Amino acid sequence: MIAYIKGIVVTIQDDSVVVDVNGVGFEIICPNPFAFQSSLNKEILINTYHYVREDLQVLYGFKNEDEKYLFTKLISVSGIGPKGALAILAGVDIVGFISAIEQEDDKFLTSFPGVGKKTARQIILDLKGKLTNVFSVNAELEQESVGSEGNHSGAYMEAEEALKALGYTDREIKSVIPVLKKENYSNTDEIIRKALGLLVKN
User: Fold this and answer.
1) Can you state the angle between helices 94-102 and 65-74, rounded to 10 degrees?
2) Which of 22, 87, 139, 147 is deepest in the core (most CB within 10 A)?
3) DSSP label at 40?
4) What predicted TM-score, i.e. pTM, was given to this entire model?
5) Does any domain span residue 111?
6) Record keywords: Transmembrane included (predicted)?
């Protein structure tokens, strides 16, 4: 298995990045390729998951081990493949997502692309109680609460990158962000969901 790739980011595409490692270009499919925009033409380490099937080999890449771990758990859920897991990760706030699983909040889970009520219930059934020992949900929630004001701008930046990865243009994104900022949202996932709602109406 290929656990990570370390090299220079030479290309950022809609669904992937290309990393040059000693003259070999590795195409890595990512939930949000534009999250690596600041690393273009720089050396970077990307955590990877080497997905192998009889007729397919794909490298999936993540900004950190938390994203990678959640990806591996999501694809273990019946009804969720790599594409579905990536769609969830593109706009996920990991702490909020795990909290929703623990609270059996299927309404929140169905807000993600490709997740219907049946899949949401399956996520809860398969993952409830299996993630809290890895992710310190309560501690991170407290930290978010204490530092929420300082995290607002970062949350909006992450949301903008996720929306770009979903195919929206800068013009479309900039048309809805000011509206959302007036509501003072601080959670990345909430910002993305509200933005998608506005973009659909537009």
Assistant:
1) 40
2) 87
3) B
4) 0.66
5) yes
6) no
